[in-house]
Amino acid sequence: MNKKRVEVLVGLFVLLGLVAMVFLALKAANLGAFASSGDTYTLTAKFDNIGGLKTRAPVRSAGVTVGRVTSIALDPKTYQGLVVMEIQKGIEFPKDSSAKILTSGLLGDQYVGMEPGGDEKVFVAGDVVKQTQSAIVLENLIGQLLFSKASDAGAQEGSK
Amino acid sequence: MIATLENSLAALGAAVLRWLQALGHAAFFFGDLLRFTPQALKRFGLVVAQVHAIGNRSLLIIAASGLAVGFVLALQMYYALVTYGAAESLGLIVNLALVRELGPVVTALLFAGRAGTSLTAEIGLMKAGEQLAAMELMAIDPRARVLAPRFIGGIISMPLLAVLFSAVGILGAYVVAVWLIGVDSGNFWSIMQSRVDVWRDVGNGVVKSFVFGVICTVVALYQGYETQATPEGVAHATTRTVVTASLGVLAMDFVLTAMMFATP
User: Fold this and answer.
1) Predicted ipTM?
2) What is the pTM of this model?
3) B85 chain-A contacts, CB cut-off 8 A
């Protein structure tokens, strides 16, 4: 009787631990998000500059997450960033769709935004997205701004 | 002059040799435990009884500490985050802190204090009462009958306790963040889910707690088994269990963290 009770209590303890584990995996981590996106196909995109894009960053179209970045590498021939993405099966993009690297919010994480085109043919697994727009690098932007201000000031000086 | 130099050198050398000897002894002890593990698994009833003594009895203190740590972390982090308008990331920060570090480490420290000491004292008193010697006389190896079930019980209990600690802590943070502070409940969970990785964060946390479980249990059993068979000896061994296990856990935590999370 007593032995039985100990066994029941230990069973409860182990069960409680497993429930906590499931809670951590599903409610407090991203296993749920992965489970829903079972079947995927891969697309590749080449960017001149990927900015702060990281693997596992979301791929979004119209703000809806449709896939994830699986790997990032440098193309040794063109010196472009090679971004491999997994897109959910069933979501197909026209052949002339473009990929952009965007930022969520002003200082948020970067993600790949897919802008669908109008072509009748669609991307199939392994295709390369030709039209891409690189990440906006803040330093370059500030540099351009300063440069244009300086040239404006120079032009005014010259006209006087 | 030369003589004192020689003496102090000898003292240093002796200390290092003693330390190495103890380490080697403990390593052989660990090997013995592993060797007797399959044998102990065959008598699973003994292991179940130990899981009850080590795990179930530690449940309350682990859950209470987890809740308290969750509460306090949420309040403290809110204070810093609200300045940057990032109070919604509260759940994420508390989750990562608990799952990666605090869950395994604090649980291991509590485990060393709550379960480790009782293991050391129990085995130390068995030795002092010559029960272990009596078993040997009956051709029963006390390492197989007494130590190995406790070892398995310890390494089963510790990861479960650490996971419970983290889960309760996150629920505690939820209570503070959503009910008291008024963070949006949907954002609390969704930011957490988008940034916490199951394998990298939760999985590595479980690996850590398993390693800490091995450290705490082995240290506790070793200290108990090697204690001087006197009341004083048992008292010293119990103290050493807490000190050695805690330091071991903290040192190992640094190594594991460096291996698991150093690369972004």
Assistant:
1) 0.84
2) 0.78
3) none
